[in-house]
Amino acid sequence: MATLKEKRTCGQRCEDFGHFVWNSDEGKFMGRTPIRWLYISLYYVAFYVVMTALFSLAIYVLMYTLDPYKPDYQDRLKSPGVMVWPDTYNDEELEITYNMSDKNNWMTKSKILQDFLEPYNDTIQAQCNHYNCTSGKYFIQHAFDAPKHTKWSCPFYQSMLGNCSGIDDPTFGYNTAQPCVIIKMNRIINFLPNNGTGSAPYVNCTALEGQDNVRGYTYYPTNGTLDLSYFPYYGKLAQPTYMNPLVAVKLDLVNQRHAVIQCRVMANNIAHQNYYDPYEGKVIFHLTALS
Ligand SMILES: *[C@@H]1O[C@H](CO)[C@@H](O)[C@H](O)[C@H]1NC(C)=O
Ligand SMILES: *[C@@H]1O[C@H](CO)[C@@H](O)[C@H](O)[C@H]1NC(C)=O
Ligand SMILES: *[C@@H]1O[C@H](CO)[C@@H](O)[C@H](O)[C@H]1NC(C)=O
Ligand SMILES: *[C@@H]1O[C@H](CO)[C@@H](O)[C@H](O)[C@H]1NC(C)=O
Ligand SMILES: *[C@@H]1O[C@H](CO)[C@@H](O)[C@H](O)[C@H]1NC(C)=O
Ligand SMILES: *[C@@H]1O[C@H](CO)[C@@H](O)[C@H](O)[C@H]1NC(C)=O
Ligand SMILES: *[C@@H]1O[C@H](CO)[C@@H](O)[C@H](O)[C@H]1NC(C)=O
After folding, report:
1. TM spans, by residue (predicted)?
2. For residue 169, which atom of ligand 4 is closest to its CA?
3. What is the predicted pLDDT for the residue at 75?
4. pLDDT tens for residues 78-102?
């Protein structure tokens, strides 16, 4: 036979609950005496105070050791990447193809270069970076002498790109078979090209395919040099007006007017054979002039 459990009414249950909340016989509140509740509360207060203190201490130590002028995770990047403008990507390969007899077509290429060079405008550079830099020397700055607790940045003027500056020839040569491309090396904080030996890195372009179709390379500035005064770069906070130095190359296409060009930045500490990063230290692009 099943034991018949005594059915309790709702009123009785409420009474039980009330008894649990405040048991006047034993002087217990929610099953514990007030003094025990006090101990439990004190324990938790102490517990949270200690936890908060530990947490704050950890945050404080972290903040204290962080240098706002340096990013924290860049230990992997040792060698800078290289890019080319006008930048037209076609599948994995970089392809600069233009039709020199189609004005609308080549204008798009010139326009890309004009837009890219806008921040290098001589007037703007003279205003933002009016520091007299000594060319041929690393520009090492330990102090924050520039306004607003920053460091100076050397100006890079558009006009330094000579015939590829777009000033005398706003087409950048894209209406002919002598187009200009612009090579830019990415920034790496505290990177000293040629690790401190004092010789400047330079850009060297060669044709990997179609050597016979390239009659010549003209570099601006002279010799394709990236002047040492643009190095080292101290980071965005320290040098908010920093501009990457550039090298423009005017190629002279002949015959089929097609070539695969490789432009390398030459320095003893710039690698260029990284299988996993084809843009490290160099850039390869297909250049074709149609007519
Ligand atoms: C280049 O442009 C010219 C003029 O618009 C056109 O006649 C010619 O077919 C174009 N060439 C190619 C290869 O598309
Ligand atoms: C540079 O900027 C000035 C003033 O905005 C402008 O007059 C000049 O045409 C610009 N130069 C070039 C080459 O775009
Ligand atoms: C930089 O040098 C030029 C010529 O030597 C001088 O006219 C100019 O005032 C100098 N600018 C600064 C900011 O020192
Ligand atoms: C720039 O182009 C002009 C005209 O084509 C030429 O005479 C001059 O030598 C070129 N300048 C340089 C530095 O190559
Ligand atoms: C540029 O690279 C080519 C091919 O690697 C080499 O023959 C030439 O000597 C280099 N020029 C300079 C100035 O380094
Ligand atoms: C360019 O390189 C040549 C040969 O190495 C050198 O004689 C010349 O002084 C260099 N010019 C500049 C402006 O660096
Ligand atoms: C410069 O860097 C290269 C490549 O990272 C290295 O082989 C060479 O020993 C370094 N030279 C100096 C003086 O640090």
Report:
1. 37-63
2. 2
3. 53
4. 789 999 999 876 667 899 999 999 9
Q: Using CA atoms, how far apart are residues 193 and 228, in angstroms rounded to an integer?
A: 8
20 close to 30: Cβ distance less than 8 angstroms: yes
CATH superfamily of the 82-289 domain? Na, k-atpase alpha subunit. (2.60.40.1660)
Q: Whose CA is nearest to atom 14 of ligand 2?
A: 121
For atom 1 of ligand 3, the residue with the nearest CA is: 132
Does residue 206 line the site of ligand 5, with CB under 6 A?
yes
pLDDT in tens, 205-237: 999 999 999 999 999 999 999 999 999 999 999
Ranges of each domain in the chain: 16-48, 82-289
Reply yes or no on whether the pLDDT at 261 is more than 90.
yes
